[in-house]
Amino acid sequence: MSFNILTVDDSKTIRKVIKKTLQLSGVPVGEFYEAENGKQALEIMQANWVDLVFADINMPVMNGVEMIERMAEDNILDKLPVIIVSTEGSKTRIDELMHKGVKAYLRKPITPENLRNAVINVMGDYDAT
Q1: Does the residue 85 lie in any domain?
Q2: Which helix (H) or strand (E) holds 97?
Q3: Is residue 129 part of a domain?
Q4: Which of 10, 42, 68, 97 could crosslink 59 through cysteines, CB 3.0-4.6 Å?
Q5: How many domains is the chain partitioned into structurally?
């Protein structure tokens, strides 16, 4: 079983780091989609099957919080888990996003182990051979 993953971050470097970290962690990836902001991410979600979203908070055009709110309004968040990957880590912000339906919150920089554990916690165990 492999996961179609969407990474939403305005930094191309961070998107590449997440992709590489997923590979190193043994997460089985099918398609890997990338978006620079929440608006692009919503368009990708509408056009493609996505199993899991990794999203930053601070982005231009539409930030991660606005994207989460839109996903919640459209009932997408009920079916599509989101893991926030951000340098921002205030307890208030984390609690707010978890209350809105975010499944996990990782602080940058991320490690393969933290990423793998978050995926397992959100998606269930998989054969990471």
Answers
A1: yes
A2: helix 91-100
A3: no
A4: 10
A5: 1
Report the CATH number that the domain containing residue 65 is assigned in CATH: 3.40.50.2300
Cα distance between residue 117 and residue 123, in whole Å: 10
Domain membership flag for residue 61: yes
In one letter, which amino acid is 81?
A: P
By residue range, what is the domain housing residue 95?
3-21+38-123
Cα(37)–Cα(95) distance, integer angstroms? 22
Contacts of residue 46, defined as CB under 8 A and 6 or more positions apart, other chains included, come to: none
Residue in the structure block whose two tokens are 């809105």: 100
**In this structure, what are the phi and psi dihedrals at residue 68, rounded to the nearest 5 degrees?**
-60, -45
- Residue 126: the pLDDT is 66
Q: Which residue has the tokens 């919150």?
A: 105
38-67 pLDDT per residue, tens: 999 999 999 999 999 999 999 999 999 999
Say whether the peptide bond before residue 109 is cis (omega within 30 degrees of 0): yes
Instruction: Tell me, yes or no, whether 32 lies in a domain.
Output: no
